[in-house]
Design a protein that fits this description.
The complex is a heterodimer of chains A (210) and B (148). By secondary structure, chain A is an alpha+beta fold. Chain A has four helices and nine strands, in the order αβββββαβαβαββ. Classes of the chains: A alpha+beta (210), B alpha+beta (148).
Chain lengths: 210, 148
């Protein structure tokens, strides 16, 4: 009699435990289906490139302005089309966070000196204006010479020219650590010439702002 | 034909080895940071502000009001919108040859990309990897959204 009661209690407890366990571990939810949508847009210059989209079950390439491709889970991507308003609605705040495009300037110098040509003096002002529009700009200053003089002389002269630009940038408040300089001497002429030929277009400093 | 395929596979593998030595270099720099943005690097969480350098393997997370814009050393521009997880899975760029590889992982959220020198050099050099797709970024500007 007692043993029977004990047995009943054990059975009830087992059923309760099973019910409890079942409740705690319901069937797993259906697997999440990650969805990827790509929209190709014209760049600032109006050019349209291409993007290939590959999932486990297929691959496609979109190459027209506002073409889109959507892939859900492993399914093959489905091509569609979007428009500027939709792009703005979905990606407005993302696009707003895109950094400005890197820009490059070339300053020209007087022969054998680290003095700007009068035209280049004007360009410097537009460089400062551009820098004032950017936060955390990185500036690479690369100096060059023409082929008049010895290789070593021109290496030094190209560095003097970069130093001139660097000093002017720092004087106008550009943080020193954001500037890197390199002197390339006569090794990378813009216009190929024979040795000892004066060429104003090669007496230059490139400034790459990123 | 098979030799040509093997050769190109070899070139890709060889260049990956060649570039792996550059892994510790700067990959890019944060230029824009709005709202909540953090960088996860080696298990630590760092503040992301304009000027902060980013490295390969960094994980960038944005909050509900957050967005972040990055300029890579090859001039690729990319930005992530609110509630995004962006992983700089692989980055290598040789500034002389313009060769290398950039794999950006978008786990969730939104990404805008304007391609730089890497994509110009090789059509397979820049990829966006999402939970179930691989995008080949052949240029020049596009947007990606990942939802679950």
């Amino acid at each position: 009699m007692r043993l029977n009661e004990l047995g009943t209690i054990v059975v009830i407890l087992a059923v309760a435990a099973a019910a409890y366990l079942l409740q705690e571990s319901p069937l797993p939810p259906p697997p999440l289906q990650p969805k990827t949508t790509v929209i190709l847009v014209p760049d600032a210059g109006g050019r349209v490139g291409a993007v290939s989209v590959k999932s486990a079950q297929g691959e496609t390439v979109i190459d027209r302005a506002y073409a889109s491709a959507t892939a859900t889970g492993a399914n093959a991507p489905v091509v569609g089309s979007s428009n500027p308003a939709e792009v703005q609605r979905i990606f407005g705040s993302t696009i707003k966070a895109l950094p400005p495009k890197p820009v490059s300037y070339t300053l020209y110098f007087l022969e054998g000196r680290d003095e700007y040509t009068p035209e280049s003096r004007q360009i410097i002002e537009s460089i400062f204006l551009e820098l004032s529009r950017r936060s955390a700009a990185d500036i690479a200053v690369i100096g060059h010479t023409d082929r008049v003089g010895a290789l070593e002389y021109n290496d030094r002269l190209s560095l003097q020219r970069t130093e001139r630009v660097r000093a002017d940038l720092i004087r106008r408040g550009v943080p020193e650590r954001s500037i890197t300089v390199a002197g390339r001497g006569e090794r990378e002429p813009l216009v190929a010439t024979a040795d000892e030929v004066p060429e104003p277009r090669n007496r230059r400093v490139e400034i790459n702002i990123r | 034909m098979i030799f040509r395929v093997l050769k190109s596979v070899f070139v890709v593998v060889a260049s990956l080895f060649a570039f792996s030595s550059m892994a510790a270099d700067d990959a890019g720099q944060i230029k824009v940071a709005n709202g909540s943005v953090t960088i996860e690097r080696g298990g630590q969480s760092l503040a992301a502000t304009p000027g902060t350098r980013v490295l390969q393997s960094d994980i960038l997370r944005t909050g509900a009001n957050g967005s972040v814009g990055i300029t890579m050393t090859d001039n690729t521009l990319l930005s992530a919108g609110p509630n995004s997880v962006l992983v700089l899975e692989r980055y290598a760029f040789n500034s002389t040859t313009h060769q290398g590889q950039f794999d950006a992982g978008l786990r969730r959220g939104t990404l805008s990309m304007v391609s730089g020198k890497l994509a110009k050099q090789s059509p397979e050099a820049v990829r966006v990897i999402t939970p179930a797709t691989v995008l080949g970024a052949r240029g020049t500007e596009f947007h990606v959204k990942v939802t679950e």
